[in-house]
Amino acid sequence: VLLQGWGADADDLMPLGQVLAEAIGTPLELVALQAPQVQTQGSGRQWYDLFPADWTAVPEAVERLKQRINNLGSTEIPLDATVLLGFSQGGAMALAAGCDLPLAGLIACSAYPHPHWQAPVMRPPVLLLHGRHDEVVPHSAALTLKQELGQSNQACDLFSFDNGHAIPVEAQAEMKKALKRWLDQPAQSA
């Protein structure tokens, strides 16, 4: 399940999802969820107002996203076989909503913690990816997330790269490893 960043639309991460799906060899169904609000400063969508930030809107936005993800779960593809991947504002939303759901894993690219957010002790494994030269969401946000998520019983890996607010090829390699680890079933490895 793909969650776009502020100012993009649902299709923004679909090419990345297709590359990842082809690379890991595990059959995947890709779903890109559209952020519910039209961005107020140009084109694209947003999960909540960001400039200026309306942090009071975050709890409702997170609850709505959890409902949408729960509605995706089925007997064919249960939530524990689902990975949530978000970029920037979508990464913040992926962590805020996904840590409370029984997912296979979470990938947050150039993400940040919402104010007053606390990661639950019981949560899915997380892969954080962040550019050391990110001028939109500082790399320090990833370090804060790593520390907050480190209080859990699950893994939280941070992959930092020499780039800005982007998802470079070397970050995609880390995503592929995580997806294979989280989605490969023991019967398939025989």
Describe it.
With 190 residues, this protein is an alpha/beta fold. It is 32% helix and 16% strand. It contains five helices and eight strands, in the order E-H-E-E-E-H-E-H-E-E-H-E-H. It has helices at residues 14-24, 58-72, 89-98, 140-149, 169-183, and strands at 2-3, 32-33, 37-38, 45-46, 83-87, 105-109, 126-131, 156-161. The strands form two sheets. Strands 2-1-5-6-7-8 form a six-stranded parallel sheet, sandwiched between helices. It has a two-stranded antiparallel ribbon with strand order 3-4. Strand 3 (37-38) and strand 4 form a beta hairpin. The chain is globular and about 40 Å long. The two termini are 27 Å apart. The relative contact order is 0.15.
List unreliable stretches of 5+ residues: 186-190
Name the structural class: alpha/beta
Gap between N and C termini: 27 Å
Number of strands: 8
Instruction: Indicate the mean pLDDT.
Output: 92
- Shape category: globular
Q: Could you give the order of the helices and strands?
A: EHEEEHEHEEHEH
Q: What can be said about the biggest beta sheet?
A: 6 strands, parallel
Please work out how many helical segments DSSP would assign. 5
* Strand-residue proportion: 15-25%
Order of strands across the widest beta sheet? 2-1-5-6-7-8
Helix coverage percent: 25-40%
Rg computed from alpha carbons, rounded to a whole number of angstroms: 15 Å
